[in-house]
User: What shape does this take?
Amino acid sequence: MRAKIYKDMLNAKSVIRETFAYGAHRAAQIGYENVFDYSLGNPSVPVPDKFTKKMMELLETKSPMELHGYSPTLGNQTAREAVAVSLKKRFHLDYTADHIFMTSGAASSLAHAFRAVTVPGDTILTFAPYFPEYGPYVNLTGAKLKVVPADLTSFQVNFQKFEEMVTADVTAVLINSPNNPSGVVYTEDTLKALADILRKKSREFGHDIYVISDEPYREIVFEGIDSPYMAGIYEKTITCYSFSKSLSLPGERIGYLAASPLDGDGKTIVDMCGQISRGIGHNCPSSIIQMAVADVLEDTSDLSVYETNMKILYDKLTGLGFSCVKPGGTFYMFPKALEEDANAFCLKAREYDLLLVPGDTFGCPGYFRISYCVDTEKVKRSLGAFEKLAKEYH
Amino acid sequence: MRAKIYKDMLNAKSVIRETFAYGAHRAAQIGYENVFDYSLGNPSVPVPDKFTKKMMELLETKSPMELHGYSPTLGNQTAREAVAVSLKKRFHLDYTADHIFMTSGAASSLAHAFRAVTVPGDTILTFAPYFPEYGPYVNLTGAKLKVVPADLTSFQVNFQKFEEMVTADVTAVLINSPNNPSGVVYTEDTLKALADILRKKSREFGHDIYVISDEPYREIVFEGIDSPYMAGIYEKTITCYSFSKSLSLPGERIGYLAASPLDGDGKTIVDMCGQISRGIGHNCPSSIIQMAVADVLEDTSDLSVYETNMKILYDKLTGLGFSCVKPGGTFYMFPKALEEDANAFCLKAREYDLLLVPGDTFGCPGYFRISYCVDTEKVKRSLGAFEKLAKEYH
Assistant: This one.
């Protein structure tokens, strides 16, 4: 077996998966309802009925040959057009189907974006705290992921560190807002300052620096929060989207890559994605899923439960003395642990059947992630456990 | 835009796609029914009703969270078990779910297999005539595809050339039987001789040489033909399968990779696939499609039309003086052109609205491919056009 790199990866442990496995084990002992599992980012609300009805209608009325036949390389044309129309309406940019490439979820969208704008040896920058899968996603392309340390006061961008780290080998910057794990939404000021620095550095180095904007949580934004759209602020932006969270369809692997209409190279990037697919074995998402999603693009699951849960937890935790930047969206929050070692803190939390993920894995030691995509009833029942945990530290 | 390699690929023309595009253009002029389009390998018979019924049942009865939630990294457990049970029963090998990795069609299965057993710089051998996508599929991994010249008398294996070409840099051999484009099924003698050479060369070089067996046409085998199973003959075999052809589901992107139970490293290879996925953006096929396929694994579409078409065309063409190895399966045949330059021959055929693909693209100049996955009625109507074409050469 030649590919030692993948064999070696089998020995690495994912803290998130280990925590989830512990939860399943513990649930078998004391009952599922008594384990407060805040480890996984799995949507907890169903897909809208409209999607299910559309699926049934397609199965009942469309010819199987048309329904299950090969999609065009860049995706089902109706789906591409529907995405373009929706983005144009929402963000006032001249999207057409030519800017859209249908993908098997955000992971596939990112896999194409990285390969379109970097070559092996290049550096991609991202910002702590960050989704830990970005590491293997980027590094296995041959490019190198480097992480800008967090601005711990706001979880916006640490611009001083960022500017130092934008060196000539940087050809892309990967952002994720609303953010996993902090729940923070980047402000317009943050995005504009990012764009200004990247324009300046692109001129200085004589090459483009793309922003790859990973936006699976775009639709989960809380009251009073504005989530500005990077592709309208910085022309060299590739937007990576997934319907996993907005429509609660993570298993169906459906999303898209959108090149900014402000980018003169945007349509070429989309065409290149069709070639990139040949190398990585991606040949379009499921045909029926593309057709069904095209019909419910502007719908979402009932996402209000996430804001309800956030408020309950945020109020309780800050009341207990936790320090926490208030989430503007997603179904995550990222408080500071009550001791320096967040791993020890999360092990202590397990004694109260609270399953939390230490921040080290997100590039932010000393913090921990709560994934509150769980039933509100369970969130309420978990508050006593947080109380007992906090008491240990007073 | 850094990734020049993909941009440059945009300029390359696919003869198959160009022919298909010409057919669409011509159909607009003279009517779809008057164009004899033998260019594409798109199944022409519908998926079995049982699949559609299962899809409806899943949508009606399963909780949306369970139906559309994340699949495990290596695939839906029920689907993996169903595949293992079926393979065990058919091929008398000790398959378990641990040998099976669910993939988004054969392209994705191959993308994982190449990365599991080669590293950049290695050579993968395949045999002419071959599916032209193998070129980019392999070369974009960093390994190099080299093509063993065809045995033109039988389209089995040219063993003399093969043995010369198995050098120390070869770590995998890619076979495709039943074969696209020849329709030929490798005999047991062919596969055993292949295995013997590879065992000898593995010992000589001190490293494994894997066979990657691409078998999307396994279920389309004609009367009297036996299609032996490579994973039972050679232990270091990875089987790549797709339901695209057997169930007429090419757009749903569903297949699997199966490591041979005879290979002590087989289960490790499957585990490695889960890591390879992280780098190439593959996170399982669609969840609902995995569940539905698990229920209809042993069914197929009504594939008899392909044998009917083959017989009509084979009898007619050999009667007209074409030289052609009789297909043992698939929906392809690969006759010798009536002039040395198959490109010129195929252009001449267009004058009779016969769309054929010249063999150069399959590594076999002088031959042409007929994809007879079309209605039998149309096949019959096309015979006159073949007659007129042949007359030009007498």
